Amino acid sequence: MTTAVTADSLVSRAADLDAADPLRHCRERFLLPEGTTYLDGNSLGALPAAVPDAMRDAVHRQWGTGLIGSWFGGDAEWWGLPERLGDRVGALLGAAPGQTVVGDSTSVQIFNTLTAAARLRPNRRLLLTDAGHFPTDAYLADSVGEMLGLEVRRVPAAQLREALEADGDRTAVVAFPAVDFATGERWDMPGLTAAAHAAGALVVWDLCHAAGALELQLDAWDVDFAVGCTYKYLSGGPGAPAFAYAARAHHAMMRQPLTGWTGHADPFAMRGTYEGAAGIGRARIGTPTVLSMLALEAAIGAFDGVDLATLRAQSLSLTGFFIECCDALLGGRGFEIVTPREPERRGSQVTLRHPDAVKLVPAAAERGVVGDKREPDLLRYGFNALYNTHADAVRAATTLAELT
Ligand SMILES: *Cc1c(COP(=O)(O)O)cnc(C)c1O
């Protein structure tokens, strides 16, 4: 009886909160299947409504009619996409123009960026990276370490400051995620960046679970390097290209190992030896994946006019309300909330633990509530403040209650 009353009151509170949502006009910027509560935008963002027409134009007009002329001519100007889109993404990262490029996969950008960063500290032999980092970040740190002869030490993010106190003077690079992909815990980017700098080390932040979800200030926080994907909160589409940010202060000295021809100072001179472009352009590698980039360009328009402080406040309202719904509806059913309850320690997802997670996630999806699982026992529900609602949060918790 009390549970039913609580569920009803949550439904009505959700309606009030959604009616007052300053971003509710953004929902129609996405095409979501009727009846689906989509809480997996932290893996693959929903389809922005502008993308299908942009793809049609890209294929029929820009490619079909413009042919090779679209690389440099007309309004398409494909060649400039990595920098042009880089600036659009950079604006969401607190990065002034000319410091971000888009291209290749996150994994490629991690390799290129970690190596470039470590080469700027040639006399230091230690790379500190997160013990809980996403697998590709961990594997690539090991590979870069092997290639450059660095010791790679995995440290829990909560112990990074201690590690820097002990071995900061040997540390070349500190490579951590802004938000833990599994638990949804957000780390103190400005504070940890300052701690790394105090030790003389450089930072490489992975922003996969932060870009488009948090208010970031890469320039103001004095971040050296950052990478991230665009298919999660930025909704760029499956396989959308990654981004790499390098602070302007490093441009003259940084040397990326993937010296592809499009990062050359004068690519069409077709010279026999590499000379990197003067600015962020040297982080370009090969021919841009134009169709994916045009999808991302259309997708990112969903952020037009969106103030990131408002977005963050809405995201915290959604995840906070979901935690409240879980507390009210899932008590005694074997769930534990893994994500920190303090708002400043959350990204934009809530992770639950349950021994039957592997069965519960697909069972909830069958009932229209889509999230994802991380074996053996985690359920992840990501909230994108541009299209998710407080009603989604109640429905997700109610569905999990019905299944347990
Ligand atoms: C999603 C994610 C990736 C993905 O890397 P890809 O090369 O795009 O497959 C990497 N790192 C982190 C932290 C992620 O969350």
From TrEMBL:
<protein>
    <recommendedName>
        <fullName>Kynureninase</fullName>
        <ecNumber>3.7.1.3</ecNumber>
    </recommendedName>
</protein>
<comment type="pathway">
    <text>Amino-acid degradation; L-kynurenine degradation; L-alanine and anthranilate from L-kynurenine: step 1/1.</text>
</comment>
<comment type="pathway">
    <text>Cofactor biosynthesis; NAD(+) biosynthesis; quinolinate from L-kynurenine: step 2/3.</text>
</comment>
<feature type="modified residue" description="N6-(pyridoxal phosphate)lysine">
    <location>
        <position position="232"/>
    </location>
</feature>
<dbReference type="GO" id="GO:0019441">
    <property type="term" value="P:L-tryptophan catabolic process to kynurenine"/>
</dbReference>
<dbReference type="GO" id="GO:0097053">
    <property type="term" value="P:L-kynurenine catabolic process"/>
</dbReference>
<feature type="binding site">
    <location>
        <position position="206"/>
    </location>
    <ligand>
        <name>pyridoxal 5'-phosphate</name>
    </ligand>
</feature>
<dbReference type="GO" id="GO:0005737">
    <property type="term" value="C:cytoplasm"/>
</dbReference>
<feature type="binding site">
    <location>
        <position position="287"/>
    </location>
    <ligand>
        <name>pyridoxal 5'-phosphate</name>
    </ligand>
</feature>
<dbReference type="GO" id="GO:0009435">
    <property type="term" value="P:NAD+ biosynthetic process"/>
</dbReference>
<dbReference type="Pfam" id="PF22580">
    <property type="entry name" value="KYNU_C"/>
</dbReference>
<dbReference type="InterPro" id="IPR010111">
    <property type="entry name" value="Kynureninase"/>
</dbReference>
<dbReference type="GO" id="GO:0030429">
    <property type="term" value="F:kynureninase activity"/>
</dbReference>
<feature type="binding site">
    <location>
        <position position="231"/>
    </location>
    <ligand>
        <name>pyridoxal 5'-phosphate</name>
    </ligand>
</feature>
<feature type="binding site">
    <location>
        <position position="106"/>
    </location>
    <ligand>
        <name>pyridoxal 5'-phosphate</name>
    </ligand>
</feature>
<feature type="binding site">
    <location>
        <begin position="134"/>
        <end position="137"/>
    </location>
    <ligand>
        <name>pyridoxal 5'-phosphate</name>
    </ligand>
</feature>
<dbReference type="GO" id="GO:0030170">
    <property type="term" value="F:pyridoxal phosphate binding"/>
</dbReference>
<feature type="binding site">
    <location>
        <position position="209"/>
    </location>
    <ligand>
        <name>pyridoxal 5'-phosphate</name>
    </ligand>
</feature>
<feature type="binding site">
    <location>
        <position position="107"/>
    </location>
    <ligand>
        <name>pyridoxal 5'-phosphate</name>
    </ligand>
</feature>
<dbReference type="InterPro" id="IPR015424">
    <property type="entry name" value="PyrdxlP-dep_Trfase"/>
</dbReference>
<comment type="function">
    <text>Catalyzes the cleavage of L-kynurenine (L-Kyn) and L-3-hydroxykynurenine (L-3OHKyn) into anthranilic acid (AA) and 3-hydroxyanthranilic acid (3-OHAA), respectively.</text>
</comment>
<keyword id="KW-0663">Pyridoxal phosphate</keyword>
<dbReference type="GO" id="GO:0043420">
    <property type="term" value="P:anthranilate metabolic process"/>
</dbReference>
<dbReference type="InterPro" id="IPR015421">
    <property type="entry name" value="PyrdxlP-dep_Trfase_major"/>
</dbReference>
<feature type="binding site">
    <location>
        <position position="261"/>
    </location>
    <ligand>
        <name>pyridoxal 5'-phosphate</name>
    </ligand>
</feature>
<comment type="similarity">
    <text>Belongs to the kynureninase family.</text>
</comment>
<keyword id="KW-0662">Pyridine nucleotide biosynthesis</keyword>
<comment type="subunit">
    <text>Homodimer.</text>
</comment>
<dbReference type="InterPro" id="IPR015422">
    <property type="entry name" value="PyrdxlP-dep_Trfase_small"/>
</dbReference>
<keyword id="KW-0378">Hydrolase</keyword>
<dbReference type="GO" id="GO:0019805">
    <property type="term" value="P:quinolinate biosynthetic process"/>
</dbReference>
